[in-house]
Structure formats: structure tokens, C-alpha cells
From TrEMBL:
It holds the Pfam family ACAS_N. The lineage of its organism: Archaea, Methanobacteriati, Methanobacteriota, Stenosarchaea group, Halobacteria. Residues 1-27, 638-662 are annotated as: Disordered. Residues 549-626 form the AMP-binding enzyme C-terminal domain. It comes from Halapricum salinum. Its EC number is 6.2.1.1. This is Acetate--CoA ligase.
Amino acid sequence: MVDDDNSELEARLPDQDYYRPPPEFVGQANVSDPAIYDRFEDFPEGFEEYAELLEWESRWDEVLDDSNPPFYEWFVDGELNASYNCIDRHLDERKNQTALLWEGEDGEQRNITYQDLYREVNKMAAALEDAGVEEDDVVTLHLPMLPALPITMLACARIGAPHSEVFAGFSAQALADRIDDAGSDVVVTADGYYRRGDLLNHKEKADEACELAEKDVDKVLVWERHEGELHPDAELEEGRDVLVSELLANNERTRVDPVTRDAEDPLFLMYTSGTTGKPKGCQHRTGGYLAYATGTSKYVLDIKPEDTYWCAADIGWITGHTYIVYGPLSLGTTSVMFEGAPDHPHKSRIWEIAEKYDVDIFHTSPTAVRQFMKWGEEYLEGYDFDFRHMTTVGEPIQPEAWNWYYEHIGDSDAVIVDTWWQTETGGHLITNLPALDDMKPGSAGKPAPGIQPAIYDDRGDEIEPASGRAGNLVIERPWPGMLQTVYGDDDRFIDEYWRDFSETDSDDPEDWVYKTGDGAVHAQDGYFRILGRLDDVMNVAGHRLGTMELESAVSEVEEVAEAAVVSRNDPEKGEVPDVYVTLREGVDPGGIEDKIVAAVERDIGKFARPNAIVIVDDLPKTRSGKIMRRLLENISNDDDLGDTTTLRDPSVPERIRDQLQD
Ligand code: WT7
């Protein structure tokens, strides 16, 4: 539901100024002719411009088949291979150019040229085939930020096996759930990686996941963080576990031809949180996704092959898939990746890397910007770098943070684009084109070329464009980067994204409207300002987390009778989860907090740890017994409680508030 009262959000986003892109930027930009917007209004043909950036084995017959909405098909009958497009096609011109610049937390450095990448991806593709992986098998990856991750993704793409990378911070249980859902026979992991100075034993999570999963995993392939030196605590299970280094050494094959994939064949799955406890496997297609990733990398991120481009995200999330791996490599540029934390061994690590590699384009999240801001400008001192272009993604950015980013990181002469999109959308949907549109702090900006967003009220009626009124952000036309379906669950795909605002018994694509789950305002200047999620999904440090997933983890603690999780606004992370619980009759409340934290870490991962755990006598409930999370959210955020007369016991919220103030 749209919150009627957006006054608080309005207050957080005061007067917005515009900033012009610097003329030097405009002069060199990949797109500087506003005619692009008109070209893409020729729908769907406009999107051919993105597809033309790829090399196809056979060209498509039709741009869009929309005869069976919402199961759209893009670049129908086109054939291509994503690994070929990200590697092989660059070899003639730039085989000695660096494709991936990797820096380990311990200072180790790897400079992987396109030729090296070609060699390594071919060998890994052969290794996957040796492990029994066949075309269309989904391979689950649980890899941290090591070169092994993009190499394995591209090796999967080469043999037509969709990859499903599970962010390394996810727990064994979360990995097991995703292995089961994807039905993977083969899992690829690493023995360990560095995080704040420790060489973590990462392999143990895959071991435990294999125990927890219902699926019998045939093979676990293990990359070593230090080749030839397996993590001292990592154990290998005979018959199941194989070191990638051994597979590579024992294989004579150094070439695996890229298989021909239909444009509609899936390229990968990426699981994301929804409003139920079960994560959704967003299934992305090969042709449309790669075209959209490449096109937006070129037009929005302004990437050129000679650039050094750094998206400081983790490849374990969609941002890294699209804007560290597929988009940048498809354009033949140099993409930077790093292991570990931005503040280890010191808080200048990011700027040290920026200077060392002479980074031109820098991509990060508002959470990171707020952190840099909190650490202070002194950590920038003495570092010599010059970004031409910067972006943010993942959450709304407050003008204050935007201004700091612009001034201190961008030296007031870089362009900034605030890019709105989702795991489901494959690439940016609302963002300015950097040379064409003025920057407006706090606003994501205009729709990307060819994209048609709108604001609907809760009844499903369109709110007049540019009205400045808050409502549900929807997308009225399909686009090539969109998910194909929820893996194995077409009904859920329709229920989650389409049912609310579409006429689902119609086969006219005009009647189908994609629900984003976000609230937004379309301002008079045509810019969209994103207000945040309207459903039970939180955005913690730019990562999506479902309330229900957290609640079901908390409810596993035996002593807990009922649990409600709500989001608290946090000056650093955007939102953080607060947990309210009632306990079973007669149990000892001692140590409950630790048990709850342990349950969340076990079921989801450390990154989802609650901010506060509040043990209460009673939760606010309606007369029919429904927990009113909204009131708890008001309590967490110190907001007015509003109308409490519909509660079974109207005194409950005040009692909780008093308890918190004690
Ligand atoms: C949700 C998607 C795809 C990038 C990483 C997150 C929020 C994303 C912005 C932005 C305001 C944003 C939305 C969206 N979001 N970008 N520029 N301004 N909010 O991917 O985990 O799929 O989350 O992140 O709420 O729905 P994700």
C-alpha cells in the first residue's frame, strides 16, 4: 500500500538543485545526441540498437514476440553465445589488454588479459564438462570475489549451463535452499577468502549445504584461494569434491567451442527475496539480457574499451553480474574487482586502488557513500585519482550524501547517475543518460531509452504523469533485460509481478503491467524519485531482505512464540531489521538474543543480523489477530502511532514504547 503520508520522505529530500554535466564529459560521451530517446520510442525496434552491439551467430527474425504475455520473447530465433561475446570476439583487437584487474585483500594482484581470460575460461569449461555438466544443467556457484567467480560464470555460459551464483555471505542453509530449488548436481565453491585479515574457511558452508540439501550433489568443485595450498581447515570428501586446480592440470583440452545458444535460452538464475519466505530464482535469458547489459553499460555508464572501470559491488548480486562481468566485458573494457572490505587494512583502500589503477569510472552504493562521509575527507587526502563518471545504485541517495560524493569523490567535475533497477530488470530502467540530462540529487531521473514507467494508485489507475503524487511504480512495456520467469514457477512469476496491475486473462500486451514493488513520485520535470519498497521487503545497505524470511528464521528459536520484523531507518545502511518477539509461557528469556542472532546467521547469513531484538509481552494485533507491523515500524522509527483503535488491545503499542524508553 502506498503510504498516504509521505511528509517524512519529502522532508528528507528538500529542494533539489540541478547540475549540468561538464562540457568535457559531454564532448567525449558515448551518447550526446538527444535523438536517442526518439529512436527508442520506436518500440520494440529501438532495442535493436542494443542487440547490434553483440556478435550473433544468426540474426533474430523478430525483435519481440508478445503474443503470450507476460512470457515475452526477445530477438526471436537469434543465436549467440555470451562467453564468446565477452571474450573471443575481442581477441583480434585487444588480446593483451587487461580484462579483469583483481586485487586481493592481502595485496596480491592479478592482471588477467583477454587472452588469459580466454585460456582460463576454456579450461574451466572443459573441467565443468569433465564433472558431468551438460548444456542446460543449472550449476550453483558459491564463490567470493576471486577471479574464479567471473571465470566460472563465463565457463558455464560457454557450455550453455545456466549459472546460479549465491552471494558468498549466504549461509549453508540459504545455499542448500537454492541448490534444491535449482536442482543442481554440481556446485562450485572456493576453499577460502580474506575478510578483514582472516582467511575464512568458506568450503565448510558447501559441505554443510550438501548435508542440508534434499538434492544429492554429485560434485563439488573447489577453487583454492592460494593455488596448491588448500585451506588448512578445508576437508575434501572423496568421490564428491574435486580441486579445480587438479581438474585443470589433468585436462589436455585447452579449447571448448562456445555452444550456440538460442536468444531465449537462459543464461543464469539470480535468487532474490520476495514477500514470502521462499526466495525467487529470477531467470535471465541470453540474448535480451546481454544486449540490455551491453547497451546500458555503453550508454549509461559511458564505458569505452580503453577505460578502467570499477564497480565496487560484489558479483554475488545482480549489480556485479551485469555491471562487473557481462556489460563491461562485452564492451571489451578493463573491469576492476577486489576481495575483502573497503576499510581493511585501512579506510583509504578504495582510493588507493583508484589511484593505483587510474580508474576512470566508479560505481558504488549510497550506503558506501554515507560510510565514506562518516569516515571523513581525511582518508582521501594524498590520493590522486580522477573519476570522469560515477554512479550510485541500490537505494535512494539523500542530497546531502550526493553532494558529498560529487564534491569530494568527484571533485565537482564528474558526472553522477543514480541508477534505479532490480534483480528482475537485468539492467538500469530509470536513470539519466549522463551527457544529456542534468543531475538532480535525490532523483533517479528519467526513464532509460525505450522504458515506460508510470505511477499507479492502489486501485490500479494511472496517476497523471508528472503530477508529483506518490504511488506504485510500474513498467508498462516489456524490455529485453527483464526476467523470463521465476525459475520453475510461472504462476509465482505472474502473482508477484503482474497480477496486481494487469488483466491477467487478456492476451493483449497492453493489459499487462509490471509491478516493481517500489513507491515513487513522477515530478513535473519528468524525473522519477524513488521512495522505497512498498511491500514487506527491506533494503539493508542496498541488499534486499524479505521480512518473512527473517521472521521464519527467528521463529525457529524454540522459545519464541511469535515474531515480527520491521524496518528501522538507519543513517548509514538505509534500513535495518528490528525484531520484536513474544516468548512461550514460562521460558527463561536469558540468552534469547544470541539464539535469535544465531538463527538468522544460520538461515540467511551474517549480513542479515538484526539491529535490535525486543522481547515484549504482546504484539499489536487487530481484532482478527493480524500483527500490525506498521505500528511496530512507527515505534522503531519514533514516529506517531496514528490510529490504534482497531487494535484488540490498544494499549500494546504504548506499552512497548515505554518499555523501550526505560
Ligand atoms: C530494489 C531492488 C539492482 C541494483 C541493486 C539492488 C531499490 C535500487 C535504487 C535507486 C532507489 C533503488 C529499489 C528496488 N533500488 N536502485 N537508484 N534508488 N532505490 O537490487 O536487490 O534487486 O533490489 O532496490 O527498492 O526495488 P535488488
